[in-house]
Every structure is written in structure tokens, then in C-alpha cells.
Amino acid sequence: MKNEDIRKRLQGIECFALDMDGTFYLGGRILEGSMAFIRKVKATGRRVIFLTNNSSKGSWQYVNKLAGMGVTIGKNEILTSGQVAAEYVLKTYPGKRVFLLGNENLRKEMEAMGVVLSEDAPDLCVIGFDTTLDYDKMCKVCDYVRAGLPFVATHPDFNCPTETGFIPDIGAILAFIEASTGRKPDRIVGKPYEEIVDCLKARTGLESGQMAMVGDRLYTDIRTGVDHGLLAVLVLSGETKAEDLERSEIQPELVFENLGGMVPYL
């Protein structure tokens, strides 16, 4: 695509939904070009919302982490799959009790939003990226799922990127549950599914065509844009490499080495 065409495509974007791990930072390190991108977006009167599938951290933790990196944002500028799951449960299962497979951060986030949690008498299950997972928890959640309780997952990611490689994410947990119970989640609410896009629209007051989804992962970030009408922008600073595009059915509209690559076109 010609430079002028790239510039025109980005011209109508009012808000960038920005993935975090592998896109803006990796572990505790801000990726090259990220700060230049943020400065340019703000200078041109646009907005950024950090949109993450990682439900193992609360929104307040992301605010604090970014502040420690020199990026000051408000809580409304962070949207996590854990928050989306809480909103989905409150809307779809009002007054129902939830067995949560998640760590203390996700527990605090959901309780703060009004979700009623129950270990022994739940009406449904919510599965998150549980970094405190143990065998007893897996047995318990499988019992509930096997018994037919509805079950919702925060996101589908198989691995979570770190500075030293990858660690198993919720996709591996869901595979365990399916192998034991024969059931997949009744609903997944994070990227690339519609629930997180609906929450994004509600949060910004914008329509899909006014927003870009920027990320490093084809099957979550880029598919979110492709499936829901957001401009799909891939950065090659994380999971996806240039050669992966050749064999992928999911194709972004724009590709940059990192966030800084967009700066000249904004």
C-alpha cells in the first residue's frame, strides 16, 4: 500500500484500541516506538484505550504498571477481558452466583463490579487466566462443568508472552476442561468476540469504523478488527512474524514493525 493510502486509511480513526503484551510492552519493558506513538496520538487529538485479554491482572494494576513506565492514564482507558466477563455475567445472568476459576486479582475485579461469587453453590462458572491454578481447582471446575452449569471464558489465548518466551494461558486451561468434560465454553467474551467490542463501543461512544484494533496476534487482535469492522493493524513486535502472514487466513489491513511505524502517517 502506498504511503498516501496508508495516511488516508488512518485519517478517520479517532480511537486506537491497543493491545498491551507484545504490542506496547513486553513484560516490564516498553517496546521500541511505543512512547512516540502515544505522543503522536495525543498531539493529533485522538484517543487510546488499552485493550487486553489478560484477565490475571486487575484494571488498577495496569494503570499502575503504565504509570511506572511513564504513561499516565485513567481507569476508563483500560478495558480487560475480566471486566467484560463481569459485565456479561451481570447482564446475562442477573443475580446468579459464579464459581470463578481465577486468581485474587480477577476475584477483586469481579466483586468490585457486583458479581456474586460462590465456591459451593454456584449457578455458572467463569474461567479466567488463573495464575494460581492447582489440581483441586481443576477438579472442582470440571465437576461443575460436567454437571451442566453454564460456563463463560474471559478469552481464548493459548499462551501469554513474557520477556523470556511464553507461559500457558487460558486456552491451555480450557483444553484441560474440554478433555475432562467434553464441553467447550458456552461463551468467550474477550478478543476476538463481540462482547469486548460492544464494551469498547460503549466506553468510547464510537462506532467500529472510527476505531482501529492494533495488536501482535492474528487470531485475537487482528481477527477482532476483521470480524467487527475495526481497522485491523498488525505490529510485528510480538507473537506474529512476517512469515506467519503467508499461511494465515486472517489478514490485517496494515502492517508495521512496531507502533512507532505508524507515527509518520498520523
TrEMBL record:
Active site: D19, D21
Keyword Hydrolase attributed: yes
Cofactor note: Divalent metal ions. Mg(2+) is the most effective.
NCBIfam families: HAD-SF-IIA
The protein's Enzyme Commission number: 3.1.3.-
Keywords: Hydrolase, Magnesium, Metal-binding
Protein name in the entry: Acid sugar phosphatase
Entry's Gene Ontology cellular component terms: cytoplasm
Residues where Mg(2+) binds: D19, D21, D216
List of residues binding substrate: K191
Function of the molecule: Catalyzes the dephosphorylation of 2-6 carbon acid sugars in vitro.
Family recorded in the similarity comment: Belongs to the HAD-like hydrolase superfamily. NagD family.
Any coiled-coil regions, as ranges: none
GO molecular function: metal ion binding; phosphatase activity
CC cofactor: Mg(2+)
InterPro entries to which the protein is assigned, alphabetical: HAD-like_sf (IPR036412), HAD-SF_hydro_IIA (IPR006357), HAD_sf (IPR023214)
Pfam families: Hydrolase_6, Hydrolase_like
